[in-house]
Design goal:
single chain; mainly beta; 8-stranded antiparallel sheet; 11 strands; 0% helix; globular; disordered C terminus
């Protein structure tokens, strides 16, 4: 089930905001693994969502509204309001075999406002979508 670089699940945007899809990527990791911020920013949330621990980092200077990265299931180790550097530890992966078919994994998401984006795009490895030069649907 593993892929390149421990990629277990790719980003699959939903057709509609309420529809099914995969709003991030799943990365292979063992419970207890240190989780690091993907980019500099500020921890804006650290707590439970639907009974699972989540950390959210906002990235000022990344546009309007600013990008936010989410990390699940991650027990935060820095308080909300803390500025973090890229690569700084922000938490530890909690045990949770529900999301990745019985395996522990990190679900990593990226949002701009309410819109989910492919977090691999932060590293130039996201999904490309090409449009025709003439703007048509042919």
């Amino acid at each position: 089930m593993g892929g390149p670089g421990g990629l277990l699940g790719r980003f699959e945007p939903p057709a509609k905001p309420w529809a099914a899809g995969h709003r991030g990527v799943d990365l292979a990791a063992a419970a207890g693994t240190e989780v690091r911020a993907a980019a500099p920013g500020m921890v804006v949330f650290s707590g439970l969502v639907a009974g699972r621990p989540v950390v959210t980092v906002s990235h000022p200077g990344s546009g309007s509204p600013p990008l936010r990265t989410t990390y699940l299931p991650v027990t935060g180790t820095v308080p909300v309001g803390t500025a973090v550097a890229a690569g700084q530890v922000i938490g530890q992966l909690a045990p949770d075999g529900r999301h990745c078919a019985g395996h522990d994994c990190l679900h990593w998401g990226l949002l701009r406002g309410p819109r989910y984006l492919d977090p691999l795009a932060l590293f130039g490895a996201g999904t490309a979508r090409l449009l025709p030069l003439n703007g048509g649907g042919e």
